[in-house]
Amino acid sequence: MFRSVRDAWNMEAVAVGATVYFGSAESDRQIIAIAKAFEEAHNLGMATILQCYSRNDGLIKDNVYYNTAAYITC
Hints:
Layout: H1 5-10, E1 15-21, H2 27-43, E2 47-53, E3 60-61, E4 64-65, H3 67-73
C-alpha cells in the first residue's frame, strides 16, 4: 500500500482502490491486506474499488495458460 486508508480519509477522499493479482505468490497476502483496508474504509463511509488480474505465471500448468478460464469465472 502506498498510504493508509486513514490518510486517504484525512485528505477527504471518498474512495480507495486496490489490485489483486490472482495466482501470484503474493495473492494471499494481497487479499488479506485489502480486506482489512476495505473494512476500515467502509467503517469510515468510503467506497472501495477492487481491480483483479489473472495474468501471471501462477496460472500456467503443464505449459497451458489458464488465464482465459480465470476471466470467464471472475
